[in-house]
Amino acid sequence: MNWxxxxxxxxxxxxxxxxxxxxxxxxxxxxxxxxxxxxxxxxSMAFFFTIVxxxxxxxxxxxxxxxxxxxxxxxxxxxGLAIGTILQLAFNVITFAGGQISFMMGFSMASAIDPQSGIxxxxxxxxxxxxxxMILFAIxxxxxxxxxxxxxxxxxxxxxxxxxxxxxxxxxxxASNMFVVGFMIAFPITALSWLADMIFGMLMKTMPQFNLLxxxxxxxxxxxxxxLIATFSAIMLILKGQMLEAFxxxxxxx
Length: 254
Known about the structure:
This protein is mainly alpha-helical. The protein contains nine helices and two strands. It has helices spanning 3-6, 9-28, 39-52, 66-105, 123-138, 141-155, 165-206, 212-230, 232-250; strands spanning 111-113, 120-122.
């Protein structure tokens, strides 16, 4: 590759499309899309990795016209958003389970702004999501994403991504799986809370002086935290399995 070839129209357009592929990735994927990362940093990272992967960029396969370039940019943005949606659904298993656990523990009103999504979220969901992000870094998910983009350059030409029926079918499956797995994660604490409510109800019938707010809720919260700590490693293993399943589906794009 000589210098005149690098600065030709085809390679300049290819550089722009590759930049949009990385930019859409950093906008949508759970790790890179964190709201605490400024937009300028995300754009700089996209520009940096575009330069790094520029040498492995395949020849451009679209005509150099304004309509085709605009369609190619939209295709690249849809590609990044499709990846982010699939991974976000797998990651939201944790936040959904955290919401159920917060409700059963009586923490549904105790919410805080989640730094990742920027929305109000129960504190248990926020705690689990922050720990889950650390787990994703520990299993090198950010490296997986860069390797996936490198592989996508060889299988999906720049501007050539098209959504198919398999993608929409998987979205429906992943959305339903989010609820099923989320309920499964929260089930130990949910079942224990129901059992505690039954016991407290019988105590209040036999001992009217029993104050549920003063005695019952602290006991319920303490036991729920104990169950959460005991099942914490299993929850993170379930998250890892969900993310691996999502990555296995991403290979179907090829």
